[in-house]
Design a protein that fits this description.
This protein has about 160 residues and is an alpha+beta fold. The protein has one domain: Immunoglobulin-like (Sandwich). Helices cover about 20% and strands about 40% of the residues. The chain has two helices and twelve strands. The structure holds copper (II) ion. The site of copper (II) ion has 7 residues, from loops.
Length: about 160
């Protein structure tokens, strides 16, 4: 009798869980620190920004950009975070990071941000110490995944580049 009751309860529980299954999926709503932006629009914005603030140097085949404080677009794609950045310590930036191809993540400073094409994530960043700022992709995205690291360096404070 007891066994039958237990079996009946188990079946009921299984059916209830199965019935609830369609509701268990991730929503398409962007996370609170993200906004919707078409990959092409984002890429155009990032390229225009990089052209405006390029130092003229190159690092790893990418232009080196020294942005003023504030919003800094960073493109994630196989297999790079573009462009190379030179930031200032003690200066507040908001990285606008988005993928323009497949799903990547940005792992930085003990946090990992999922990057889904079509969503731009806003990541607050104030470098505290001078030196390279490690950031990398944490989502396997193909054969070059292990080399998908950012080229971001922080230099000692001083006067930040003027907004242009
Ligand atoms: Cu990756």
């Amino acid at each position: 009798m007891r066994d039958r009751l237990a079996a009946a309860l188990m079946i009921a529980a299984t059916l209830a869980l199965l019935a609830a299954l369609p509701g268990w999926r991730m929503t398409d709503a962007p996370p609170p620190d993200a906004f919707a932006e078409a990959p092409d629009d984002f890429l155009a914005r990032a390229e225009a920004f990089a052209a405006r603030h390029a130092t003229g140097d190159e690092a790893g085949g990418m232009p080196v950009v020294a942005p003023p404080p504030g919003d800094v677009p960073v493109v994630a794609r196989r297999f790079q975070f573009w462009p190379a950045l030179v930031l200032r310590t003690g200066t507040a930036y908001r990285l606008h990071v988005a993928s323009v191809d497949s799903v990547h993540t940005l792992a930085i400073d003990g946090h990992e941000y999922l990057l889904v094409p079509g969503q731009t994530r806003v990541i607050e960043l104030t470098p505290r110490v001078a030196g390279p700022l490690p950031l990398q992709c944490g989502e396997y995205c193909g054969l070059g995944h292990n080399g998908m690291r950012g080229a971001v360096t922080a230099r000692d404070g001083g006067a930040p580049p003027a907004a242009r």
